[in-house]
Amino acid sequence: MAGGKIRKEKPSRAAANHFQGGISFHKSKGQHxxxxxxxxxxxxxxxxIKSTDVILEIGPGTGNLTKKLLEVGKMVIAVELxxxxxxxxxxxxxxxxxSNRLKVxxxxxLKCDLPYFDICVANIPYQISSPLxxxxxxxxxxxxxAVIMFQREFAMRLVAQPGDNLYCRLSVNTxxxxxxxxxxxxxxxxxxxxxxxxxxxxxxxxxKPLPPVSxxxxxxxxxxxxxxxxxxxxxxxxxxxxxxxxxxxxxTLQALQLSQKGLLENTEMALDVSVLGDTIEDDSSKEIxxxxxxxxxxxxxxxxxxxxxxxxxxxxxxLKQGDFEEKRSSKLTQVDFxxxxxxxxxxxxxxx
Length: 352
What we know:
Elements: H1 13-22, E1 33-34, H2 37-47, E2 54-58, H3 64-72, E3 75-80, H4 83-93, E4 102-106, E5 119-123, H5 129-138, E6 145-151, H6 152-159, H7 169-177, E7 178-186, E8 191-192, E9 199-206, H8 215-227, H9 233-236, H10 240-256, H11 260-264, H12 274-277, E10 282-283, E11 288-289, H13 310-321, H14 334-346
Parallel strand pairs: 2-3, 2-5, 3-4, 5-6
Antiparallel strand pairs: 1-8, 6-9, 7-9, 10-11
């Protein structure tokens, strides 16, 4: 979604003709114009931008939000895929006091290397919601916060808590790495052309320090648990496919004699969280990012037992030790999952 395209000031007739006739916005690419000027003011206000901040803006469009950000921050780095919008930005700010405080990067934000920034303010295409969220959370050094407009359902998944209907793998993985809060709902009629769904603005603050956990292991566990989030963990971990997968990992690690300390070691310098969002994709043609259980790793539906398996007894013993056998993923907190992962690791069972 092209960010911050608001007609804040009444344009001249020539400017209006150029805007309407010279640039057509592609709905299929997530380009929508925010037409409510109060929304941009609210977003900028809630971002808590300081005069010393370097601001990353994604999808600046014609630059109305960009102008507001330049007025309150030190510098704006705008990443824009559409060359027409890049040209429009350059024309708009050329020869103004803002020109030396605006850096425009033409390219795909998911593919380009992002420079240092203090805060991110963005109104993004819905179809990049998940990969962009985790790319930002993997960025180093960590930024202070990001204030981003998402599709409302995706936003609600980000902030969902245990017991909520929308609580899913996306919720757990994001909240492991960041504090997420919902700022405001934005109706679809605030855009021209209106998208198919409502939107929400979310604030994301990276956790400092990060939890001392292997993120690939973490996601391996969360994938299994949320494959059937309303089943008991005892039922999930009795499935033949799950037991076979974990036993293969167990035997491989034993053969390689990898130490538990090495597997759990985590440093911010080498943070790789791309795995956390790699299966939470969306269908851009439908303007929706699922983020839920339908995209999770497939396992067998049946609770086929592996009779006489010492490994199965070991798995169930871990669940009983932590009193997890009758619990459901949809009700478990971050602390619960961290404790469960630690119990598995202590038993020599790993998920990556």
